[in-house]
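question for whoever is on the cluster today: can someone run the full assembly for these? three chains, 971 residues total. i dont have access anymore since they changed the login thing
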Amino acid sequence: MSAFPVTSRNFRKNTAKAHADENLRKALKRMESGAIVRRAAVVAELPEFDALRDEALAIKNHVLGNLDFYLERFEAQVKAQGGHVHWCATPRQARETILSICQAVGARTATKGKSMIAEEIALNPFLEENGIEPVETDLGEYIIQLADEPPSHIIGPALHKTKEQVTELFHQHHRKYGREERVTDPQALVNEAREILRQKYIDADVGITGANFLIAETGSTIIVTNEGNGDLTQMLPRVHVVITSIEKVVPTLEDVSTILRVLARSATGQEFSSYTTFSTGPKRAGDLDGPEQFHVVLLDNGRSDLLGTEMQDLLRCIRCGACMNHCPVYHSVGGHAYGWVYPGPIGAALDPHFLGIEEAQHLPNASTFCGRCESVCPMRIPLPDIMRHWRERAFESAVTPPQQRFGIRLWAWVAMRPALYRAGARLAMRLLAWLGRREGRLSSLPFAGGWTAGRDLPAPQGRTFQELWAARRGARK
Amino acid sequence: MSGGAPAGAAGGRPRVGLFVTCLVDLYRPTVGFAAVKLLEDAGCEVVVPEAQTCCGQPAYNSGDRPDAMAIARQVIEAFRGFDYVVVPSGSCGGMLKDHYPALLAGDPAMKDAAEDLARRTFELTSFLVDVLGFENVRASLATSATYHDSCSGLRELGIKAQPRRLLAKVDGLELKELPGAEVCCGFGGTFCVKYPEISTDIVAKKTADIVATGASLLLAGDMGCLLNMAGRLKREGASVKVRHVAEVLAGMTDEPAIGEGGG
Amino acid sequence: MSEAREKILRGIRRSLGRGPRLGEERAALQARLASPRPNLIPKRARLPHAEQVVLFQAMAEKLDATVARVSSLAEVPDAVAEYLAARNLPTTIRMSPDPELDAIPWDRRPLLTLHRGRAAPEDLVGLTPAFAGIAETGTLMFASGAARPATINFMPDTHIAVLRSSQVVGDYETAFARLRAAAGREDGLFMPRTVNLVTGPSRTGDIEQTLILGAHGPRRLHVVLVDDEAH
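^ ran it for u. tokens below:
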């Protein structure tokens, strides 16, 4: 697969492409009705859901305030049980670390569980360049790996693909395994992938998974999946590599229990995911299976810079995807339009940190601030507030386009002068009302093409409230 | 005096400063008068400070923090001394109530005043129901209506039941729930002109839902959302009429609906 | 990469505006780890034990597992044989080489062929002992070990778990506490290599959000719930 092409700068172009893609529109429509209803139903079944959110939030805040302590403790516990921890400040260090682990065992293929951090560091193309074949095993990731596309959703990477597209991809790529028939039924498609990937797990030299959480108390890493692919990925090869990031550490098993209660419910609307797996060190003396080596690759990539800032709350994110599942903008444009690894509201708030505000300036701006993301975020991350902070940085650093800056500053200048405002408003509204006098609306207006391209502009009533109020008060006196 | 209006600071009728909002001021004065009527019916003395313009959201949400702070200070000054400040908009109400204190938290001279204003500020339907316990709506309108929950009111201020309780008192009005009533209409302030294709796409889904209810009238509590939804409905040639909820509650439905001609 | 280690830790401390946690602060954090305390436990799980067993079964079934309750270990072979026969599944079973499972009188159903050891690719039915059953979501906990290879929980198409009613607890926290107690050490180094929380069979929604069971792990999960408590 090619490295995740950063196209955030082309957000408008990406939007136009998304709007023209009928398959994508159908997929997004399905998600709009499905994911939201499922979450609401399962949340309604648990009266303590909001109280659990508050506790989960408090746990994460506690961790972030003591992140150095918990990471050191996690590391010590991993080492005490025969595992290795590799600290990596940059994506490049993380990629090279993983490559050298693979090379040390002469690896030719590596199976992979789903990992957003692996996407963040563009691991697959790097392994390929170095002669190691990465095999995605999560069905959605496998599909987009065949399609040579990036994921469009953090928990449903192939959400944008129709079953017809999957049929074609499988037909094209599975012939080399002697599969000539075109399979169309979703169950049959899943079976075909299952059979082909089964052999890949067995053949792989290294299994790479992400981690949803790291437990400081025990030195365990945790993956949460529904398919069981992550488990086969980590238990069959000789080496298990966990690629993860520093903010994922949680103090104790009790603490992670609390967070797990809100994770699946927020993500897929399940009471609990099928598989929550705790991996601690390599296989033990006498164990009949399990990996001989256990490596945790711990990535910072600028996360530590967010601590102590107004954006620190982003580090509470548990990557459930509820924000994008509930976002009207995501529902309109899909995940690829955001142009980088993390789409939706969390991406709009997080991507500028990784890509810089100039590259990513559209993302925090392309939000209606409807607040639904924050209202469903299990970690109550104030996503609109954080997006607004990015808008402020863009405004301050003149990344915001000059005409927008000028327009806003002019409006504010007038708004600070009530008498001028009243006089100007009277004139402008008279004119607008006159223009729309016949229909009560305008179907086009110079400088308002953005509005009138897709909707009429209702005409004002003609006089301003202030004007009429002053008249009424005058009459009363 | 109808309703159980609490007494004002001076012991008499509560003195309410009406924050008209710029969109009501510019576009739909009827909503302002409807708000005045409802507040007076509920036993309040209503004052409209002249020095008000806009709540500063366009600047605030565009990242122009200094201007937003300057406007916030101006609004705070203009509304000093009222028992309550009432806003016929969840969005502007949320700005005063939620965002001013955050915006001015670092300004020792204004911090307390911002918090004081926030405590006194209420969205119109919430003020009537939650503060005054006023439900004695004397209006009638024989039609079927549906109601869109504007995002800021809903999620920042918890406005959901209040307008419905009041609308239930309107004679002859049948309220049909709008599927996806809590989904954004795509207005989003400057968003609708910065990203018009996305905004239009979102509002088109909303209008499809509105039309599917079969209601003749669409109501909401925020002028921005109303202009957006009305503009799209008119572009689609839909016959659904659009009004601010206050117009119906105050019985002020003689003026043409939003985006309708022939006044 | 120890250079990176120092860089990251230093960066964290700089951002937080403080030095390393020392003295009393450090002691408080260590104490939090040394005696982990449960946070809020949902009411759903706080039930008398007998009701927890009932809830476990109800939740497991709701989440697409099947459950057969039997009154003694001696009845397990019948329950397993009947389950397999009813679904026309093979009677060759990959079983954990676990003393507890070995104590079951398998010779009562001579048609069941048992192979002990880690799972092999051709295995179609796996049988493993659960460490706990968690009522609040009908979740099974499996703890790996020399006698309990984790591969059996994932590779065969059909996974049968043997769970004793005394192993059913209300919530995850109690199950973890039992895991800690079983190891009898307080340094946090008590986790087996693999602990699996399993809730229903493997599933995916990755093709048009259509729910399909049996993505990579077992297509079927069956629990033989053995009553081992005096009434």
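summary bc i know u wont read the tokens: The mean pLDDT of chain C is 96. Chain C has one domain: 49-226.
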